Amino acid sequence: MLFATILVFISFIAYKIYQKTKVPEGLEDVPTISYFGIFKSMFYNEGPDKRWEDSRQVLEKYGIGKFWFHGEWYVVTTDLELIKDVFAKTDLYPKLSLEEAFPGSLMTSYFGTNVVFSNGDVWKRHRFITNPAFKSIPMQLFDDITVKLLKVIEKVDNEPIEVKDLMDRLILDVLGRIAFKFDFNYLEDPTNVLVTTYKEAIAEVNNPLYFLFPFIENIPYFYRTEARKKVAKIHDLFSGLIEERRKSMETDELSKKIDNNSADLLECMINASKNPKYHMSDEEMRYNLSTFMIAGHETTATALTTVLYVLATHKDVQSKVREELLRVLGDNLIPTIEQQKELKYMNMVLHENLRLYPPIHQLPRRENAEIIKFRNHTFLLNTPILVNIYGVHHSPKYWKDPEEFIPERFENENDEKRDQNTWLPFGGGSRICLGNTVTLIEERVMLCTILRKYEVSLPADSIHKDKLQLDKFNDSFTGLKALHLIFKRTTN
Ligand code: HEM
Asked: PROSITE patterns annotated for this entry (predicted)?
């Protein structure tokens, strides 16, 4: 009897495992990427370069692969035809909302319903309301922040300084000012309580343990009371900002700003909160503030860090960028929007940097809302689909010598020849990044500020000497191991 019970039990478990791991109909012929490679890279927090190593054989040959994770079969792709379809048909390939992906999690309670993770009419409304805030930014906001940046660099003149941390501090301050006229003052005071609480809350939200084993958050022991308190503090900060700004904005003043496109993110949302058609609730505003901060902060800080690295390791390129900016800017310290268009070589460098080190290496998961036929495969409803940006950017199918840093790829005549979907650091289609203009403005301003006065070098004993050491910030964002660079004053 005991033997029969054990046999039934084992058969039941075996059947459950079979059910969970069985390849869905239609995906049988999609080549498989090793589960162990994926798990290992998640577990060890490996960067997108290592993940690409694990999947490149499959993706280069077929442009599409499948892997099993958390009880589901995912499709991952570098195929331009499929990627164009994902970009063009947002309703056919909606994103998985955070509520669906991580129900009851800390991450969901922090980001809630927002422009990045919503779909359909909710997304259209959020995008319509927030889009105008990032069309142009007042350039004078950079006046004193660049002075503050130079002061920090001056203090450590000619000694190595950790650059990811510095860029983190810089961009948090810039973004706070752009999005809601708030000064985090992180550059001047890295220990201020507000910022350390913000950073701790973000670290908790992105704790890799809960990405790997999301179910544990439902176990009372892992409820994360302390972490939830930190998140609540940041929510309170954002709620306070909304309340304060609402009180201080006279209706006339707000309407004028909306009319002449000078309203910031918070003002655009407050304006919408009064509009019955494009209404936005206080809770949605708060979620969007949390979301924009992470979408615009980590990404731009990473891009600036990696571009400083490529300039430090390609001194000839650095000299050319410096010569160009001195010629175009003259005595001007901050480039005007017109001058930024003339910084053609710098723009090529920025593009090539985003190709080589895309700050978002994989688009957030999509799921097809209808059955899709792709080549001889069938994606049944709700198949998880991942667009591998890093893979597209590093594929020899699309780029000659993809591992090399060659800004000239983006020279007009070369650039026009390539399929435009081979460069997708900002995604594409109607869900393209809302901050793609602003982030490039920030990068240009900061490069002009630094390179006018300093030469950037990599210390001889750097761990990044042969290759930039990437790691993982979260499932989509590229992370970096600490990177020290030397800033040596070249002029007074
Ligand atoms: C180098 C810097 C940046 C990179 C590489 C980047 C990358 C991306 C990518 C790949 C997407 C597409 C996501 C998708 O299709 O699922 C995206 C969307 C988005 N980004 Fe960025 N981003 C950057 C900077 C910013 C900045 C500065 C902001 C705003 C402050 C911002 C706000 C957004 C928002 C709101 C979306 C969602 C758009 C939508 O779904 O309609 N990003 N970004």
From this structure: CYTOCHROME_P450 (PS00086)
CB 115 near ligand 1, within 6 Å:
yes
Helices (H) and strands (E) in the chain, counts: 21, 11
pLDDT of residue 211: 75
pTM to 2 decimal places: 0.93
360 Cβ closer than 6 Å to some ligand 1 atom: yes
Residue 63 belongs to a domain with what CATH number? 1.10.630.10
pLDDT of residue 492: 63
> Binding site: residue ranges?
433
Tell whether 472 is covered by a domain: yes
| Structure token pair of residue 234 | 């940041």
Total number of domains in the chain: 1
Tokens of 233: 């503090």
Which residues carry a binding-site annotation for heme? 433
**Amino acid identity at 283:** E
Answer yes or no: is 194 within a domain.
yes
Q: How far is the CA of 229 from the centre of ligand 1 (A)?
A: 28
Query: Does residue 233 fall inside a structural domain?
Result: yes
The residue range of the domain holding 101 is 23-489
**R_g over Cα of the chain:** 24
- 11 domain residue, yes or no: no
Query: Residue 351: CB within 6 Å of ligand 1?
Result: no
Count of residues making up the chain: 492
Nearest residue by C-alpha to atom 35 in ligand 1? 434
